[in-house]
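Predict structure. Input: Methanogenic corrinoid protein MtbC1, 347 residues.
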Amino acid sequence: MSVPSAVPRRSYDIAALIDEFLQLLGEGDEYGAVEMVTELYEEGVPPQRLMIDLIGGAQTRVGELWAANEWTVAREHAATAISERVLAALAARTNVRPYRGRVTIACVDGEWHALPTRMLAEMLRLDGWRVDFLGANVPGPHLVTHLHQTGPDVVALSCMIATRLPRAHAAITACKAAGVPVIAGGRGFGPGGRYAQHLGADAWAAGAEEAVRRLARNWPPHNQDPQLSAYLGDEEYTYVVRHRPVLISTAMRQLTDTYPAVREYNQRQLDSTAEDMAHIVDFLAAALYVNETQIFTDFVAWTDEVLQARGVPPVALRVGLETVRAQLHDYPTAGAMLAAGIQLLNE
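Output follows.
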């Protein structure tokens, strides 16, 4: 690392730097990863760029490697832990006195992907905010208690998986009832954050940099019509949620009859199949909650890629969808969403 400080190393090839950092993550070399990032910082690379471009870029690759079945869950988790350690080491080298306001940052109840919100927390600290970072899986009542105790100017809520949208809606509603505006983030809110306003959020940001810009000017935004998010989750959503265990267990029994290969599965494979069935029901429920078929079809497309990378033929997922659909013949919207997923697999 002998690049002169006058020309930051990042300016040469960020893709190569990501490859180098990713290799350190894959090898479990925490010391090397911390050393690499701190040296880049000392050479003049802005900490924001190291957080977003290098750490964030490498973490995206980590997720892709898991999806392609090239990395195990354990290796992915180890890499994420190192990225968190590197981010903390970088944050310790920066010191900006708060001069804007106070922001609470949290993942919604059931959301465990905390690294993106931690990156947002550090980005906002660098921009002069006083930050309360609450981390992953924050129950709504605990979040509201914290708001009453600290009185922040804004809450930043993250939802990375669409199945958490009903809980995100509850958290947003509770925050606004406490008088605190909400900025939402995370791909769980859909392309362009299309579900965020529908759930009552005051704003949405595609990433940490956009969130920093949104909060730095014209905040809080004008209050929206509360009727936009007043009525979500109809009787079909309620039925699917209440009958979730039965839908899953019945689908597993029917799957054994219609897809004989399941009879040869070992216990680990059966557990994975049951988990996939649970995902089908949960994503269907989320799609019903906001009446958005794309939530379900996006899930089907992604799951198909992941299963094929693990040697599971597409027919297995299709049969799984059909077994759930057979149980919901009296529910037209749910049936249409499942039919759309099946059609996607047939194309």
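The domain at 102-229 is CATH 3.40.50.280 (Rossmann fold).
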